Each structure stands twice: as structure tokens, then as C-alpha cells.
Amino acid sequence: MGMTIAEKIIRSHLVSGEMKPGEDIGLRIDQTLTQDATGTMAYLEFEAMGIPRVKTERSVAYIDHNTLQSGFENADDHRYIQSIAKKHGIYFSRPGNGICHQLHLERFGVPGKTLIGSDSHTPTGGGIGMLAFGAGGLDVAVAMGGGEYHIAMPKMLKINLTGRLSPWVSAKDVILAVLQRLSVKGGVGKIIEYGGEGISTLTVPERATITNMGTELGATTSIFPSDDITRQFLKAQGREDSWIELKSDKDAVYDEIIGLDLSALEPLAACPHSPDAVKSVKALSGIKVDQCCIGSCTNSSYPDMMRVAAILKGKTVHPDVSLTIGCGSKQVYHMLAQNGALADIIASGARVLECACGPCIGMGQSPKSGGVSLRTFNRNFEGRSGTADAQVYLVSPETAAVSALTGVFTDPRTLGDPVEISMPEKFLINDNLIVPPISEALMETVEIEHGPNIKPFPTSEILPDKIEKMAILKVGDNITTDHIMPAGAKILPYRSNIPYLSNFCFGVCDKEFPARCKEQGGGIIIGGHNYGQGSSREHAALVPLYLGIKAVAAKSYARIHCANLANAGLIPLQFQDEADYDKIDQMDELCLPNIRKELEQGTEVTMKNLTKNSTMKLTAVLTAREREMVLAGGLLNYTKQAVE
Ligand code: MIC
Ligand code: SF4
Q1: In angstroms, rounded to a whole number, what is the distance separating the alpha carbons of residues 103 and 332?
Q2: Is 323 left (phi over 0), alpha (psi -120 to 50) or beta?
Q3: What is the Cα–Cα distance from 504 to 619, expressed in whole angstroms?
Q4: Is the pTM of this model over 0.90?
Q5: How many whole angstroms from 540 Cα to the centroid of ligand 1?
Q6: CB-based contacts of 48: which residues, under 8 Å, 6+ apart?
Q7: Atom number, ligand 2, closest to the C-alpha of residue 361
Q8: CA 160 to centroid of ligand 2, rounded, Å
Q9: How confident is the model at residue 457 (pLDDT cuts 50, 70, 90)?
Q10: What is the distance in A from the centroid of ligand 2 to the CA of 519?
Q11: Do 281 and 374 contact (CB within 8 A), yes or no?
Q12: How much distance in Å is there from the Cα of 298 to the middle of ligand 2?
């Protein structure tokens, strides 16, 4: 039987398990990446494993998230990561070099290889035919140490692209159209493979925009074939020797195939507060705009920025709009400076930011109260911008740039002739902000620099026979990790200080949550569907662990967060009967009377509601390996046990 692209890469990297949908599989990982907001924790965990040198083909540590240094914390963390990189054979991308996903695509990604990154948008690498997954920091640490990466074997969904994009319609509109159709849960348990004649009209940066936001569909990952367009891109990056051809077999079998006609698409926008709340820009035309932000790992490539510069050329940003622009990498920024496009951007009155995540993760540029912000980013969750009541819309760079000029939501097609930007034959290559590993002899002499902000991470204990706790918090559907463990300029500097971070846990939903946990000695969280969607931050599991949370009972889970809970030794439970969700009120006394015995035997778990005097059945969303992990008190304990 023929194979899909993803199946081919999985087959060639399979270490354990069977390639049957839903089965636990262990994959050999060729490359890893970390960023600074998750990296500090990932490297603390790596240090705890005591492995002298990374065992991957390539591991890269990027500094791109926590670049606003309003205290010593971020700078200390950067130094810590730099010293770790030096000691353990890891490439180090210095602050200012750009955003991990854009940079990895440019300088390190290789078609047909596996990549995991401690960032949920790692699937950006699928734009050049990598099988790339977002993962928790601990999973990345294990992979750096040569361990397998475990996932449930996904189903295969093919999106067949036909036609070609009309002028002023862009890759962002493609993925927004997919989100409109499939929703933020539509990709759960699936790998999305793009194919059809339409793919030959899409450049690598356009493909990467699409795979990047596959994360917002909840997909395990997304991937494009590696074809001549990929080869041209790698050649222009001086890396043609990394290219291999990669395509699905003619008789490959997909679990689901859907078609998308590129010619029929129009400019789209995701409305507050969800990436799947999609409407046409036309329908939103005329809404007054306060801010436009262009950049992020979704839309900060050379052609994106060139198109924006061409739109802004000779014009002035509307007086009521603040326009920020951040290139995805130093390469893009430098090329724009050399060819004069940066001058057009500056002259228009745009506020040029350093090459980093910036406003995407609330690192500055929070909109005014109730402000309407058009962003080329990938997430518009409530409060993520740093302004609780901001109205954030996700749009293409074209829509953002045009609207910044008019001051109102504007369909870029009203501008007339489109701007034509072609891919460069050669990108400007200067890797002077990438520090390569040093020789093994020298590595031993490196001292790790621990700043005072780095506190030990919480560890869990062997699972007890019984858990008796309160329903300490009850929340609804689509709770994101930005709800559980908010980010932003004020909180992100404490990613390596879990005790301090815990004061902000669930702050978006319930400011009293941390205090209540401390008073009651933790509890069990009750959630709705798609609990934990969004980022890969394991802090959304580690901080609840620190606060004494023992389990979550929800209707369904997002993949990475569910794995992070298990890694931390917390039990992700799913209601067998969704109606049971309604039978628990916050502060009910709950009991899992036989939890240890039940998990030793399987996944069915009994929960008693002592307040309401009722009993319900739940399923632990754990593979056999994860059950052992939870019984042992999390992945680190489990790994230690395996070594002993
Ligand atoms: C995000 O976009 O939410 C982040 C910040 O990049 C996160 C990682 C983090 O929380 O540090 C992600 O997507 O995984
Ligand atoms: Fe950075 Fe935003 Fe991309 Fe996350 S989504 S990696 S914060 S640019």
C-alpha cells in the first residue's frame, strides 16, 4: 500500500509502536529547537538528566521571546541558556537574530527529518517537508538526550489545493479559510498534508504560514511535499545539499480528503477571541482600527515584508493608528535595509521593532483599552495582547498594511493593482549571530551561569492509592494555556521561577485561584472541550502541579497540554458521559478512591462526588507508557527509574 509523506518519515524514524491510528509510537528525533521562554525550564530538566552532550544531529537554542529586558531576569536567563548551549553542544542563536521558526526554516531545517521544539509553532518546518512537532520542554530535553518522542499515531488528512490565489489574497487567507471550515478542534489527532496542483503556486514562506497555523487547528502537525520550490528555497539559502525530494505515493491512503480552491478565496480575518471566528474582510470593512502589528513567526518572511513595504511606500500611516513591524529574522531585516524597502517602511511612520516575537506574546505594544488591533499573528486569545478588553483580529500582512493607511478595516483588493514580489535567487547569508558548538574538550570547562531568578522546578511524587480533593476550579470549553498560565511582558520573565509564576495561574478566569489552591492544598480542575489548546508551555502543567493540582477532569484535551500534564505526573481525565460535567460544581468534594490500582490496570477511573453523593466513570487520557509515568510521579521520575 502506498504511503503519505508523513507516513514515510514516521516509518523511517519509528523506534517503537505500530503505525495504527491512536497507537502510541516512539520516534527518533533528528533535530530539536528551544526558545527562551520555554528553554530555561527545558535545559534545567536536561541538566537534571545528567547527559554531557546532546545526541541529536542538531539542537538549536533560540532567544526570541523574552527580549524586553526591564529587569535582570531575562538577561540572566539568556546567559544561562548560552552557557548551557556551550557546555552541551547546542547551537545558540543570539538575541536580535530573529524568531526561532523563521530562522530554523532559513538556516537549519531539512526535508524528511524529524524536529521537535519547545514551542507549539514548530510545525512551521512542515513548509519545507520536515515532520516537525511542538512539544513540552521535558519531551525536548529527553529528545536532546537521545530519547524517543512519543505521540499517538495520527490520522492522515489531505487538503487538496486547486487553482491559484487571486491578487491581494495571501497564504494567511488560505489557513484562515481552513480554520473557518475545520475549527480550532478540527485537526486534533491528525497530520494535515497539503497536496494537489495548487501547491506548485505557493512559495516556501507561504507554505510555512499555512503549516505554522495548523497548530491553531489543533493538528499534530502539517506538512507540504519537498519539491522543486523547496529546492529553490534551500538553494537560495546556500543549502541545496540539504534538499531531498519528498512526495506521497500515488496510491497513498488518507483517512479524509478535503478540497480547497485557492482561486475562490478572498481576504479573511479571525475575529476576537478565536482563530476560527473567521469572517471576510469585506464584511468587517469600515471598523475603526487603533493598531496594526505586522510580524510574528506566521508572517514575517522576506516576501511578506517586501509586500508591506511596497504598500506603505510614499504614504503615511493614519494618524489614529499605531503600526508596528518586526521582521522574522536578521536576514530579512538586513535585506530590507540593503534594498531600500526599510526606508519606505520607516518613512511611512511605522514603528520598527527588533526581530523577535514582540507583541505576539504581549512583549510590549499592548493596545489601548478596548482597542481594535489587526495582527498578522496566529493567536488572538482573550488578554494575550496584554490588554484584557482589546479586540484582536488576525489578518494577512496586506490587510494589516492597507488598513494602517486608511485607519479602518480595509479589503486590500480596493487598492487596485497588486504588488508583485518575487522570491530572491539568493538570500543574504550571514550567520554571525549563531554561535556554533565548541570542541568536546573545551565543553567540560564551561561553567553554567545560574542567575538568582532561576528556582528549582517542582517535582511530583509517586501516585498515591487514593486522591481526595476539591473541584477547585470549573471552567468552560476551549480554555487555552494563555488562560492557565498567562504570558506577557510582566509575567514571562519568571518562567524559571515557578513559585512567583504561580501567583498568576488562571488569572484571566479567576484571580482568586492561586490563593484558593494554597488554602485548600490544591484540588482537581474541571474543564470543558479542548482543554489546554494553544501553546506548548509546560508551565501550564508545572504551575498547577506546584499549586497542588492532582488531576484535571475535562470533556476533551489539546494534544501537547495533555502530554505535558502526564509528563508532570498530573492525571488528565475525560468524562465518559459529558453530562457528568454538569453534575460537578466548583468546591464540591471529589474522591478518586482507587486511582492507583485503576491506572495500574487500565484507563477507567472512578470518581465520587462526595458533596452530591454520586459516582461517575472517567477515562484517563494516557497511553500505557504514560500510565507508568503517572504512577511513577511524572516523566523525570519515570526516566530515573528506568535508568536505576
Ligand atoms: C506562544 O505563541 O504562545 C508561545 C509563547 O510561543 C508558546 C510558547 C511559550 O509559552 O513559551 C507556544 O506557542 O508554545
Ligand atoms: Fe513567538 Fe508568537 Fe510565534 Fe509564539 S506564535 S513563537 S510568541 S511569534
Answers
A1: 10
A2: beta
A3: 30
A4: yes
A5: 11
A6: 636
A7: 7
A8: 27
A9: confident
A10: 35
A11: no
A12: 8
pLDDT per residue as tens digits for the range 53-97: 999 999 999 999 999 999 999 999 999 999 999 999 999 999 999
DSSP bridge pairs for 575: 618
Contacts of 445 (CB under 8 A, 6+ apart): none
Which residue from 535, 543, 559 has its CB within 8 A of the most atoms of ligand 1, so it is best to mutate?
A: 535
Ligand 2 atom closest to the Cα of residue 101 is 6
Instruction: Please tell me what DSSP assigns to residue 596.
Output: H
CB 193 within 8 A of CB 156: yes
Amino acid letter for position 210: I
Q: Which residues have CB under 6 Å of ligand 2?
A: 65, 99, 119, 121, 296-297, 357, 360-361, 377-378
Bridging pattern class, strands 549-554 and 523-526: parallel
Q: Give the number of other CB atoms < 10 A from CB of residue 581.
A: 18
Question: With 70 as the cut, is the pLDDT of residue 644 above it?
Answer: no
Q: Is the shortest distance between the CB of 175 and ligand 1 below 6 Å?
A: no
Q: Which residues touch 210 (CB under 8 Å, ≥6 apart)?
A: 127, 171, 174, 175, 178, 194, 202, 222, 224
| Atom 2 of ligand 1: nearest residue by CA position | 535
Task: Please report the atom of ligand 1 found closest to the CA of residue 65.
Answer: 5
Ligand 2 atom 3: residue of nearest CA? 297
Q: Please give the Cα distance from 224 to 126 (Å, whole number).
A: 6
DSSP for 408-467, please give it: B---GGGG-SPPP-PPPSS-----TTEE----HHHHTTPPP---TT--PPP---PPPS-E
Q: For a pocket test of ligand 1, which of 537, 539, 542 has the largest count of ligand atoms closer than 8 A to its C-beta?
A: 537
Among protein residues, the one with the nearest Cα to ligand 1's atom 4 is: 535
In a 10 Å sphere around its CB, with 0-12 CB exposed, 13-18 middle and 19+ buried, how is residue 494 labelled? buried
Q: Please give the torsion angle defined by the CA atoms of residues 72, 77, 78 and 82, in that order, rounded to the nearest 10 degrees.
A: 140
User: In terms of residues, how long is the chain?
Assistant: 644
Residues near 479 by Cβ (< 8 Å), separated by ≥ 6? 509, 527, 528, 530, 531, 532, 533
CB burial string 321-339: b at 16+ within 10 A, e below = bbbbbbbbbbbbbbbbbee
DSSP assignment of 346-357, as one string? HHHT-EEEPSS-
Question: Which grid cell is 105?
Answer: 526554516
**481 C-alpha to ligand 1 centroid (Å):** 9
| Nearest C-alpha neighbor of 275 from the set 181, 358, 206 | 181
Model pLDDT for residues 255-303, shown as the tens digit of each residue: 999 999 999 999 999 999 999 999 999 999 999 999 999 999 999 999 9
CB atoms within 10 A of CB 370: 11
Ligand 1 and 37: CB distance under 6 A:
yes
Q: Note the helical H segments in 14-55.
A: 36-49
Distance 366 CA to ligand 1 centre (A): 17
